[in-house]
Amino acid sequence: MRTRWSLLLLSLLLTPPPPDAGAQTPDVSAAKDRGAAIAREADARDSGWGNAEARLRMVLKNRHGQESLRTLDVRFLEMAQDGDKSLGYFHEPADVKGTALLTYSHKTESDDQWLYLPALKRVKRIASADKSGAFMGSEFAYEDLSSQEVEKYTYTHVKDEALDGEDCFVIERVPTAKYSGYTRQVVWIDKSAYRTRKVDYYDRKGSLLKTLTAGGYTVHLERYWRAGWMLMLNYQNGKSTRLEWSGFRFRTGFKDTDFTQEALKRAS
Questions:
Q1: CA distance 72 to 41
Q2: What's the CA gap between 98 and 121, in Å, rounded?
Q3: Which residues touch 115 (CB under 8 Å, ≥6 apart)?
Q4: Which CATH class is domain 26-267?
Q5: pTM score, two decimals?
Q6: Residue 93 has pLDDT above 50, yes or no
Q7: Strand positions, DSSP E, the chain
């Protein structure tokens, strides 16, 4: 019996310990580093534009193919030390005219968003827990309308592959926000100009919820690329929303005072 226990003790001493659950293999660590580097490069290439405005046509389509149209103007203000600010206000149709959304994006904290409702003549703050909700009946959530700051996610490079003839990086990003409606997003970024071409969004259950595709890119100020259209397709309800951008103008002179709750009311 003593010999048996001696052999057992010897085998335990010679058996290597199990890997640390928190440790990462070199391949996983390298994939995370590369994913973060791609995201940082895409962000760096779109820095320095200052402020801008554009006209947006929103086409909502239900599962039966019936369409409804909305138009709005959107202003943007780049913030060097934090996330960007934006202010969008609707022109038509009549039932949404005057409605406006003000967004203060943040790098690490929860974004601030306010919705002005002209019928009630009041500003409603969008709670953090409600940011996964649909914006004005579209397939875009409130959190989709904030600037996609690098610090809002953790990243992993998944693979490289071609998409519609463009060589792309494919990275996975996981939101750090507590109340995000997504567990993860898979993003296709083209290698030629680091433009977002496609995003797959996975819901809180880990199921594929919707896909965003973007195209019709044009360059502004000889450096900054903007999509001419974006299509968000929701697989779970059969609906889609297409955004058609036009009339981009940069360095228009917008200031912080143009992005306040008082400005939100005036914009309507």
A1: 31
A2: 10
A3: 99, 100, 101, 102, 123, 124, 126
A4: mainly beta
A5: 0.88
A6: yes
A7: 51-61, 67-77, 85-92, 100-104, 112-117, 122-125, 153-163, 166-175, 184-190, 196-202, 208-215, 218-220, 224-226, 229-234, 240-250
In this structure, the dihedral spanned by the alpha carbons of residues 242, 248, 253 and 258, taken in order and rounded to 10 degrees, is -20
Residues in the chain: 268
Q: With bands split at pLDDT 50, 70 and 90, how would you rate the model's confidence at 80?
A: confident
CA 188, CA 186: separation in Å to the nearest integer?
A: 7
- Could you check whether the bond before residue 93 is cis, i.e. omega within 30 degrees of 0? yes
Which amino acid appears at position 224 of this protein?
Y
Q: Radius of gyration (Cα) for the chain, nearest Å? A: 23
Q: Given the structure tokens 């995003």, which residue do they identify?
A: 199
Residue for token pair 């039966």: 64
Residue holding tokens 């939101």? 175
Q: What token pair was written down for 136? A: 């004005």
